[in-house]
Design goal:
Protein-Tyrosine Phosphatase, Chain A, 9% strand, protein serine/threonine phosphatase activity, alpha/beta, disordered N terminus, TYR_PHOSPHATASE_DUAL_dom, single chain, hydrolase, EC 3.1.3.16, globular, 237 residues, Tyr_Pase_dom, 50% helix
């Protein structure tokens, strides 16, 4: 029961982003919804999750297509950017960045073969890289494939972003292109700390920047949204 639900647009972006993937089979392997194979959810629940993902993709693709830019402030105090912005001292100073969240850190903690395979999507920075700017750094070793469990980092990312804003700072959240991993974690922050629904959070970010999280990340955001809805229902009774 395999479905490849990613749009042609996402296929194009992935091929441009990861030139190391030489064949269409490799591209499809990184984009195919492996979740369907590995999940233990009943098929009916999986189908419902698929419908939710498709709904979120219509939100992402609705309206005018924004020109992809190196960085955008998507919420007061939160900037999503690409790799080049995160490594430019001049731009970081000009933006007044006090915190950096790297969602494409290199230390995957996986076996060497996997580390080597996905190293092209990593951004190699660390706290020492930003010490001369007095910027506080936090790295999350996420891989931009649909089978990666990014949700395990939702809370720690939300806490780091929230800490920056509570201190009156300005945070740069980035991955390699600022389209999938970083966008997903900012959306999760808005859901966890600002109590937005997944639709509201996506619309908030999408208004300011072109984003396109992969299907696996969208599904994990749907699951987070359902947990929040269930918790609110329980508090009513």
């Amino acid at each position: 029961f395999l479905e490849t639900q990613n749009s042609v647009l996402y296929l194009y972006l992935k091929s441009a982003l990861y030139p190391g993937l030489q064949t269409i089979n490799e591209l499809l392997e990184n984009m195919t919804c492996k979740y369907y194979v590995t999940s233990r959810l009943p098929w009916r629940e999986i189908s419902q999750a698929s419908l939710q993902v498709e709904h979120l993709k219509t939100i992402l693709e609705a309206g005018a297509i924004r020109r992809h830019e190196a960085y955008n402030e998507v919420y007061p105090g939160i900037v999503i950017s690409d790799e080049a912005t995160a490594m430019s001292s001049y731009v970081l100073r000009s933006l007044g960045i006090t915190h950096v969240l790297n969602t494409a850190a290199h230390d995957y903690g996986l076996d060497p073969a996997i580390d080597q395979r996905y190293s092209y999507g990593a951004v190699r920075t660390s706290q020492s890289f930003y010490n001369h700017l007095s910027i506080k750094y936090f790295g999350i070793p996420a891989v931009d494939i649909v089978s990666y469990n990014l949700s395990r980092h939702f809370n720690e990312a939300a806490e780091f972003i929230d800490e920056a804003l509570r201190k009156g700072g300005k945070i740069l959240v980035h991955c390699q292109m600022g389209i999938s991993r970083s966008a997903t974690l900012v959306i999760a922050f808005l859901m966890i700390k600002k109590q937005l629904s997944v639709e509201e959070a996506i619309k908030t970010v999408r208004m300011k920047r072109f984003i396109y999280p992969n299907d696996g990340f969208l599904r994990q955001l749907c699951q987070l949204d359902e947990r929040h809805r269930s918790a609110r229902r329980r508090t009513r009774y």
